[in-house]
Write a structure and sequence with these properties.
Helix 1 packs parallel to helix 8 and helix 4 runs antiparallel to helix 5. The relative contact order is 0.16. With about 450 residues, the protein is an alpha/beta fold. It has eleven helices and 25 strands. The radius of gyration is 24 Å and the shape is elongated. About 30% of the residues lie in helices and about 25% in strands.
């Protein structure tokens, strides 16, 4: 719909699943829709772990926001960062100190990793919410294998080849399985001085089972599948300290050069500027129609919203389908009010339709719960592949991801093993006697070559 300069302005903050869905749902409404995001791309976060473990390049899971709305005439995209919101004045303030007016506001800025008050751990155990996060983790993982090739001390070698994932939710389960698979299937023939299959992957979960948002049956299936491929799982154990040397869990120090955090999330702090009540994870306590109390023209959706499903009474989970449904629900409210020119007194209450949950574990292994059915193994893995391909934005992305998965599956190879940004090496001991080399003559040759480097 061709926009009118005098039409109401709907500002959407955040180009994630909720924000994109809201803008698309307003395509035929008589409004000007302005989407604001500090990144210029929509990110398919469920596949971030595949970037972190070298399965996919970044371009396969990110899509330029402007291209998504190329054909939507009433949509405008601004690559800016909003730092505060003045609800009473209907004003946004950007990082460059500029201001912008809105008639309606949809806040969908997502979430970030939560370290439960230990934010200083982030430098040692990065979370995985952005492309930069995934690339940082990929660099750390690949750097660890490179450092292991040059290591001559057995203790230091074990530290290079120990990978710790904190948090046993879907991201932690998928990441732990993918790291182990990387060492076993993809790198075993690439290194001469150590066996990459011996890489130790430890998954630590404070709760008493993996995948707490899924059924006990699926949790058990995930536990068995991860254990079968060699992942060491520690349940009911809490991390109490993290530094450059590793972690402390239940009083035990585990030395590792690579630690990844997937144990918790908190809402974007922008929600605090609304002046509304927040829950303990920083999410805004919204009304049944997703608006905030006292400001019916301001909505909060996705990971930033704390809301109960009107049908079940359960809290709406912070997952992509929920954010998408919230975006569509709110957009319909705005479109109706703009067309009629009046504020509705009965907007209805948001109801979340749960389409199911899935988590992939490794090669041809996954768990899935769809429409009351619970299944695992190859069938669940194929279902996971299909669903994620369908949800990807952009036809080209679907083709590229499918080709990458097919090549990876058939050749046991990961095609994106590029270390970028020149991350520092952590070789601990100077070259001397070698580790796991055979025959001994090769040890002498390698050691001599390394001395000359």
């Amino acid at each position: 719909m061709k926009p009118d300069i005098n039409s109401p302005i709907v500002v959407v903050i955040g180009g994630g699943f909720g924000g994109i869905a809201a803008v698309q749902a307003l395509a035929k409404a008589p409004v000007n829709v302005v989407l604001v995001d500090k990144a210029n791309h929509h990110l398919f976060q469920p596949l971030l772990y595949q970037v972190a473990t070298s399965v996919l390049p970044t371009s396969n899971i990110a899509f330029p926001i402007r291209r998504i709305f190329r054909q939507q005439e009433n949509a405008y995209v601004f690559n800016e960062e909003v730092v505060s919101i003045d609800c009473a004045a209907h004003l946004l303030t950007f990082a460059n100190n500029r201001n912008a007016h809105f008639d309606y506001l949809i806040l969908a800025a997502g979430a970030r990793s939560s370290y439960f008050g230990n934010d200083h751990w982030e430098q040692f155990a990065p979370g995985m919410k952005t492309l930069d996060d995934a690339l940082t983790i990929r660099n750390k993982i690949l750097r660890a294998f490179e450092d292991a090739e040059a290591e001559t001390d057995e203790v230091a070698l074990r530290e290079h080849l120990t990978f710790i994932v904190v948090g046993g939710g879907p991201t932690g389960v998928e990441l732990a399985g993918a790291i182990k698979e990387l060492g076993v299937d993809s790198l075993s023939k690439d290194y001469r001085r150590f066996n990459s299959k011996s890489a130790r992957v430890i998954l630590i979960e404070a709760g008493n089972r993996l995948l707490p948002s899924m059924s006990e049956r699926s949790s058990h299936a995930a536990f068995l599948a991860l254990s079968k491929i060699g992942v060491e799982i520690r349940l009911s154990q809490s991390v109490t300290h993290i530094d450059e040397s590793g972690v402390v869990v239940n009083g035990e120090t585990i030395h590792a050069n690579t630690v990844v955090w997937s144990a918790g999330v908190k809402a974007n702090p922008l929600g605090a500027s609304l002046g509304a009540k927040l829950d303990r994870n920083g999410r805004v306590l919204v009304e049944p129609d997703c608006s905030i109390k006292g400001a019916s023209n301001i909505f909060v959706i996705g990971d930033m919203a704390s809301i109960q499903c009107a049908k079940t009474g359960h809290m709406v989970p912070g997952v992509a389908p929920a954010a998408t449904q919230m975006g569509q629900f709110v957009a319909k409210i705005i479109a109706r009010e703009v067309k009629t020119g009046t504020k509705m007194t009965a907007r209805g209450a948001f109801q979340y339709f749960d389409k199911g949950s899935m988590a992939t574990i490794g090669r041809a292994q996954a768990v899935a719960e769809v429409a009351g059915l619970k299944f695992a193994g190859l069938l669940a893995w194929l279902a996971w592949l299909f669903v994620h391909l369908i949800l990807l934005v952009g036809f080209n992305n679907r083709i590229l991801v499918f080709m990458s998965w097919a090549i990876s599956y058939l050749t046991f190879s990961k095609g994106s093993r590029i270390i970028s940004g020149n991350p520092p090496s952590r070789v601990v001991v100077p070259v001397g006697s070698s580790v796991n080399d055979s025959p001994s003559q090769r040890n002498k040759v390698v050691a001599e070559l390394l001395k000359r480097m």
